[in-house]
Model the fold of this input.
Amino acid sequence: MVVGANATILGPVSIGADSSVGAGAVVVKDAPAGAVLVGIPARDLTRLPEGSGSRAPLTDPAFYLDPAIYI
Done:
């Protein structure tokens, strides 16, 4: 698991193996293995492919977030 600077993990939550928590994120819910958590409250932005580890590049277009949801 990788936790970014100033990330806050609140309450009794469980964060799965090979997950990453972005800098400044506030985790309030359980997260599955391979999750990439970002934001306030933290959301599972993508799921990493099985067995790739948290540092593998995401090359599959299905893993990219549609920027239109933020507008």
Summary: Residues 16 and 33 are 4 Å apart (CA to CA). The first strand starts at residue 2 and ends at 3. The chain has a mean pLDDT of 77.
